[in-house]
Amino acid sequence: MSDRPKAVVLLSGGVDSATCLAIAIADGYEPYALSFNYHQRHAVELAAASRIAAFLGVTRHLVLDIPLGKIGGSALTTSIDVPKDIPADRIGQSIPITYVPARNTIFLSFALAFAEVLGAGDIFIGVNAMDYSGYPDCRPAYITAFEKMANLALQKAVEGQLVFRIRTPLLRLNKAQIIKRGIELGVDYSLTHSCYDPDPTGLACGRCESCILRRKGFLEAGAPDPTRYAKQP
């Protein structure tokens, strides 16, 4: 039985969530990773999440099925083309078609249920409000509002047994800073996957927003990008 406080960590399999998990462990938490098969076209990221969870030694890695593809509305869950070759300085200027309706709200709601059952007051999510794609559910105001809601909605909060906190250690970091922090903590980024539109073998396209931000982050961090791209930039 561990005497460390428990924490639920949302783990997608990408750079941000892997770094967030490493930070939670470094901060002394016993980590419980939570991933989702939401019918995303880049479901290969779930294999990456499993690799990261094993590498960093989580206590439990729970993968839930949520068929958001039946709702649609996003290039990540339908046949809508994923935008390619957008200049890095234009990414984040508007909400892109890769936004998945209510995704973080849905994910955090499941994380709350998992945390309440575990008796974990802390939930880690790797959102950042600087070097990102413009998603509204990655912004500080959203996180603050969700945390307030959580403490009004859950039995253990209302009865005073737990205070629920949404931890966002990457919120004010850009991608290069995130990568540098992860390297300090020993994250093996060759285990991660970021591409929104990988080829059938799982190779990253090198051209979507996520690939562009990843490549830019490694370049600015002065670290080699271990990603295998189907199309070399």
Describe this structure as you would to a colleague.
The protein has 233 residues and is α/β, with parallel strands linked by helices. The protein has a single domain (6-221), classed as HUPs (Rossmann fold, 3-Layer(aba) Sandwich). Helix content is 35%, strand content 11%. The protein contains 7 helices and 5 strands, in the order E-H-E-H-E-H-E-H-H-E-H-H. The protein has helices spanning 15-26, 45-56, 103-118, 140-153, 155-158, 175-184, 209-221; strands spanning 6-10, 30-37, 60-65, 122-124, 165-167. It has a 5-stranded parallel beta sheet, with helices on both faces. Strand 1 (6-10), helix 1 (15-26) and strand 2 form a beta-alpha-beta unit. Helix 1 packs parallel to helix 2 (45-56) and helix 6 (175-184) crosses helix 7 (209-221). The longest helix has 16 residues, at 103-118. The protein is globular. It starts with 5 loop residues before the first strand and ends in a 12-residue tail after the last helix. 41% of the residues are buried. The model has no long low-confidence stretch (mean pLDDT 93).
